[in-house]
Amino acid sequence: MIIVIKNEKKNELEKLIKWIKNQGLDIHMSEGANATIVGLIGDTSKIDIDLISSLDIVESVKRISEPYKKVNRKFHPADTVISAGGREIGGGRFCFIAGPCSVENEEQIVGIALAVKKSGAHFLRGGAFKPRTSPYAFQGMGADGIELLKKAKKKSGLGIVTEIMNINHLDLFSDVDIIQVGARNMQNFDLLKELGQSKKPILLKRGLSGTIEEWLMSAEYVMSKGNENVILCERGIRTFEHYTRNTLDLSAIPLVKELTHLPVIVDPSHASGLSRLVRPMSLAATAAGSDGLIIEVHNDPPRALCDGAQSIRPEQFDELVKKIKDILPIVDKRL
Amino acid sequence: MIIVIKNEKKNELEKLIKWIKNQGLDIHMSEGANATIVGLIGDTSKIDIDLISSLDIVESVKRISEPYKKVNRKFHPADTVISAGGREIGGGRFCFIAGPCSVENEEQIVGIALAVKKSGAHFLRGGAFKPRTSPYAFQGMGADGIELLKKAKKKSGLGIVTEIMNINHLDLFSDVDIIQVGARNMQNFDLLKELGQSKKPILLKRGLSGTIEEWLMSAEYVMSKGNENVILCERGIRTFEHYTRNTLDLSAIPLVKELTHLPVIVDPSHASGLSRLVRPMSLAATAAGSDGLIIEVHNDPPRALCDGAQSIRPEQFDELVKKIKDILPIVDKRL
Amino acid sequence: MIIVIKNEKKNELEKLIKWIKNQGLDIHMSEGANATIVGLIGDTSKIDIDLISSLDIVESVKRISEPYKKVNRKFHPADTVISAGGREIGGGRFCFIAGPCSVENEEQIVGIALAVKKSGAHFLRGGAFKPRTSPYAFQGMGADGIELLKKAKKKSGLGIVTEIMNINHLDLFSDVDIIQVGARNMQNFDLLKELGQSKKPILLKRGLSGTIEEWLMSAEYVMSKGNENVILCERGIRTFEHYTRNTLDLSAIPLVKELTHLPVIVDPSHASGLSRLVRPMSLAATAAGSDGLIIEVHNDPPRALCDGAQSIRPEQFDELVKKIKDILPIVDKRL
Amino acid sequence: MIIVIKNEKKNELEKLIKWIKNQGLDIHMSEGANATIVGLIGDTSKIDIDLISSLDIVESVKRISEPYKKVNRKFHPADTVISAGGREIGGGRFCFIAGPCSVENEEQIVGIALAVKKSGAHFLRGGAFKPRTSPYAFQGMGADGIELLKKAKKKSGLGIVTEIMNINHLDLFSDVDIIQVGARNMQNFDLLKELGQSKKPILLKRGLSGTIEEWLMSAEYVMSKGNENVILCERGIRTFEHYTRNTLDLSAIPLVKELTHLPVIVDPSHASGLSRLVRPMSLAATAAGSDGLIIEVHNDPPRALCDGAQSIRPEQFDELVKKIKDILPIVDKRL
Q: Rounded mean pLDDT of A168-185?
């Protein structure tokens, strides 16, 4: 970490230096014509950069080393491969997660599971607990929804992926293969810590205004508690453009794969909120180097209870899988 | 709600109309040269606008009535006045909440409480549970911090305000006067529902990327469960400008006061992250019509364990209170 | 256009209705329990939606028909194919535009032209007039730069693409094949009007904070003056994420292709500002349906006078072209 | 400037060092465990930080000294006071600029001029050339509009402020007291250079996505050509929040006043696009330390040809001026 000190405040520097040394760090000073530069030597991951930068004597601060460790590819150069539901994720393998926004009833979830399995999906997704902007909107089937997912798993052989919203629901997820943390909970730190004590693979979605660094720090929360099975998921960020619900940030894919060894997948359905963008954005995500896709598929979009029509139909999913299989060898990925 | 249907898809309209009627709504149709317009009559608050707008046959959708009810000034024209710690908030009265970022020890928190009380503060703030981007940063004193706040309350007579992060901690907050929900938890819906069953005043911060409508919907979550004591708090939104940590959106103050009857206060400390901006932004917030301020005050900023230097010192707070008292009559507010 | 009138202001509606009729429009009224809705019938493209929405009696406004006409695919369903430098752009054909950020000298520009031609480029790009944030930075070779581009065109047979910044420079561009309007000039309306009187193909970059609608309206400026040869270029928008210089909005590609018949290409070099992202983002843009790519290629990046290192080297460009050729048939495009 | 070099690329450092030295700069190296840090000594204002940061061997770059010079308060500590139309702007004096969005006819502009003069305005604003998103919208009266402004100036004694959009129109502005550069032209560098050769005061609006640093660099463009009379104007930035047209960034006021000696004023009318926000935002801007306000005032908002209803009426302006006069002494400003 490099701290630039305002020249006119140089005489107040002593207090800061003492504080830094109390944190167990060493210091390297360099005085210039316009500014004095203080380099911090040692493990600065505990140092709050916002604290430092808000000091009156500080012109600005810059991290040299990333604040994340277990997530960092520098300390773990090889790709992490995660096993879930009898399938490997990451390390050059591409996975398909597909299913409806919400679990609605047995016929629906089993029907979709069998259909997407046939097209080549590896996991079934489906919401049992639903984060909804309005308290008056359908909040999901809850525990019953998870039971139905388990039935669908049994009948289709697909692993299941579903979202957790409440720290006290963890017991309900014992047969779930991948636990999803939604975008709104990316910085629900108590939930992340709790999931860090589980061994279940965690699918961590990027928050609507989550920077890449914050997203990786949230993964670090899970890993720092002992759970190394984190899959990152880009799902669109909030920008000034309102034609799409969010702006899918595909450049995050190659960037995050540089910074971390964890697998990264893309959710093209929630990013745009428009079903007709699912296909082009799925192809683009694959070409950008994604390790997989999580796609909403519904057998009857207009009747779905939520987000229905950002879903594609099973036959559209089938076609899409074929197109993606054509792209995979071009980007050195395999199923 | 008005739904604009693509003209070339008019023949697929029937299914949608059936679905709308199943939701207990009536319909008013109007066919134009370029589009067919479907007006929904009845309570549309349960209708997911994103679902409708993602349908292939839909050109676009527009809400006519707001999706919030209990929060809505239309149905509750008079200002809500909230009682907390023996003090009224809202309805023309201006309140000061002041204190350190984190509770550190008894001497610190009692010392600051007495100092800000003397300057005119009505409530003491202080973090016991701290949401930190890094798992390696100080996470707050927890339950012990709340005990120290209670000691400071006893000695100073100030009401206390502190943040909850975990649904299972609610019991610890029984002597807290106002429970704060932080920006990162604005859409932690399970936490909001739980707080809705309490009777404690809730200070609901706007999320970093929370739209005004989403923020009000989160207040609706609390109110819909029976707790009508919600205070809104603007604390800066995330934008492209990185010179300040966030961009304080002061135009939200008059807007939100139009839309809702709930009190709205401003946090100028977290918005910018720069202590030297606390004074001008506090004056500006007051002039914009805020019902109060929540300000970080610390007796020794550089030694503070977190956010320390976005804090001002007690003597700066004292001066600031005087300036604000001069502005209050100009904007028809009183202490 | 639909205008929702506040119910309590209904009695002030007459003045607005008179004003609307003075604009040559008809009106369709519909009174509801919470609001009165005024539908405008006729050509509303001259109506300023911001004017209407800022009226005190207006709750909100919504356009039904797009404010652009010549750009609109509704009135021109077939893809526009643009001829430039002996090459067709759009209509299923994919084009490569490649070259250095700035023209530096004859050897450089001719060298790069021959190299990218060999790899399969159709056009040579190179900046003669450079928009630079700092007045102290190199501003380009100006007219001399255009002369060197013409030499490179002669030697390589490639069409040339270069940026105009000043309305008075148009004469210098008579031998340029495609005139580029940079992101910062997307709403330089006097420049757009002037270019509308030319017949030259215009490459119109999206502004850093340009919405899709504003971008299309800027194309409408050019087309409304008589020049129908507009190529749109997505190059990244400004968001809160600062890890990349801008966030490439690839979902804009399929969306814009729905809304307009004009060709749309992508600039992956300026979007991220990182040369190592050029390849994955080029592949992703192609998979998303782009009609071409404009890529910075430099034979000696570290010595380049500007943006040098967001450039890739000719041998990297050569490899990239091969990969893209593999993707084209999957998305029904051809060279 | 500090450049952090990736450790694994240290051996490629020589080329960069040579290039830096060719720019006339000296170097200070410091090798750490994780990175090598290169400090640049000398005038780095010509160095393109984006170029450096895009190099493969570079981990990150940080400026120590600001890239602007003439604008910089460090080199010019005293407030700049600008004389225009017989009135001083800046240096503790507060000014009011008021008038309609567009000049419409003599009666209108003279009527408003006399009204706002009576309430205490120092300058009359009014658009003759109007930047409009749509080519079909009213583009202003042009040269005739400027003639009418001159008549209003003669009758009221107010200085006049109006926007330039075209480099070739400068001659028409010889009797204008302050030339406005609109938000969309903040980075129209050729226009800025031309205005730098004039001696007229320039009112430089912040662009919709202009960072504070870019805004100051645009002022530097004008000043570097010899014109030191630049007034900055905050008018709202583009964010995800769409309830207001833009988000007024009032924290920019104290920040910009720290960084530069130039006066800074606020435009509350364009920021929100809602006339009912003009009053609270004007008071807030004044309390935040603004050197003045530019406010849209119209005698008949609903009939105005553009932006009409973000305007307030003369009697509302009159009341607002009184309120602001009450705030001025609290923030150490005078008329």
A: 97
pTM of the predicted protein model:
0.93
Averaged pLDDT for residues C106-134: 96
**Residue finishing a domain among A16, A37, A62:** A62
Full 3-state SS string of B210-274: CCHHHHHHHHHHHHHCCCCCEEEEECCECCCCCCCCCECCCCHHHHHHHHECCCEEECHHHHHCC
pLDDT in tens, C149-205: 999 999 999 999 999 999 999 999 999 999 999 999 999 999 999 999 999 999 999
Identify the closest residue of chain C to B60 by CA–CA distance. C64
For residues B287 and B169, state if they share a domain: yes
Is residue A16 very low, low, confident or very high in pLDDT (cuts 50, 70, 90)?
confident
Across the beta sheet with D2-6, what order do the strands follow?
D26-31, D35-41, D2-6, D58-62
Q: Please indicate, yes or no, whether residues A119 and A100 belong to a single structural domain of this protein.
A: yes
Domain range spanning residue D124? 73-331
Give the best residue of D26, D37, D69 to mutate against chain A (max A CB count within 10 A): D37
Mutate to test the interface with C, among B26, B31, B37, B251 (most CBs of C within 10 A): B37
ipTM of the complex: 0.92
Q: Measured between alpha carbons, how far is D302 from D304 in angstroms, rounded to an integer? A: 6
Does the beta-carbon distance from A239 to D242 stay under 8 Å? no
Give the per-residue pLDDT at C307. 52
Judge whether residue B261 has pLDDT over 60: yes
Are residues B21 and B138 located together in one domain of the fold? Answer: no
Mean pLDDT score, D90-107: 96
Output the CA–CA distances (angstroms, integers) from residue A307 to A100, A274, A319, B24, in the order listed: 9, 10, 21, 19
How many domains is chain D partitioned into structurally?
A: 2
Helix (H) or strand (E) holding C84: strand C82-84
Q: Are D206 and D237 in contact (CB under 8 A)?
A: yes
Does the CB of D284 have a partner CB in chain B at under 8 Å?
A: yes
CB contact under 8 A, C211 and A243: yes
Residue A98 and residue A58 share a domain: no
- Band the pLDDT of C275: cuts 50, 70, 90: confident
Q: What is the CATH number of the domain that holds A234?
A: 3.20.20.70
In a domain, D246, yes or no: yes
Q: Whose CA is closest to D322, among D121, D160, D125? A: D121
Contacts of C3 in chain B (CB under 8 A): none
More confident residue, D118 or C21: D118
The mean pLDDT value for C223-228 works out to 96
* Residues in Cβ contact with C122 at an 8 Å cutoff, skipping those fewer than 6 apart: C85, C87, C95, C96, C97, C158, C159
Nearest to A244 by CA among A211, A286, A274: A274
Same domain, yes or no: B138 and B27: no
pLDDT for residue B10 is more than 90: no
The domain that holds A43 is classified in CATH as 3.30.70.1140
